[in-house]
Amino acid sequence: MLGRFEAALVPSSDFRRMAIPAAAAPSGEARALMRDRLALVEGWLAPAGAAEVDRMIGSLMQVMAAPATSEDSQRIALGLYRSVLAPLPAWAVGAACRRFLDGTAGGGTFAPTPAELANEVRAITAKQVDERARLMRVLDAEILPAPDPEAVERARQAAADAIAGKLMREQQDQRRAVETEEQERDAVLAGPPLKAGALGSAALGRFLPAHPARRTSGQPTA
Fold it and tell me: What is the distance between the alpha carbons of residues 215 and 222, in angstroms, rounded to a whole number?
């Protein structure tokens, strides 16, 4: 269902959102279903919070090797883990910790840095984050009203008239060009005899081929 509505999205005048034609927009029932799904996905992505991070990181550090540091350094390190991981969902942070513990991620010996752990969490939640963005894009889309049939017909007729007018002007220009060439050709041929070489090959090709005097069978004259 979501994919069908996404396929109907078009750019909006507001660069911050998309638009969707009214005929393809989700019904009230479809919107309700998508809002329920969005609430569920946002629940999955709810922040873990500092206390939950402290608990999971404390357990991780007890099992995996970490550089020997002073108590102050350990407190600073825990603060860094907290600031990086607290905005991420607790279930994903726990899953990432288990990956480092069982060797699925990392080398299986040393505790991950805050950045390494956060990257693993983002990989775990990528599907949910993408679905949330897709749902929000459809639900927030501007509804484009259906076009007025009369306005569509007027626009179609105006376009047809413009094309017809352009063709007519082009035909008139072509006729005028042909008439001008014929007049110039007839004036040359009706004048006094030309000396040999008076007209170049370009002029001859322009004036003579269509003149009645040249309408022969194509055989050379004596």
Answer: 15
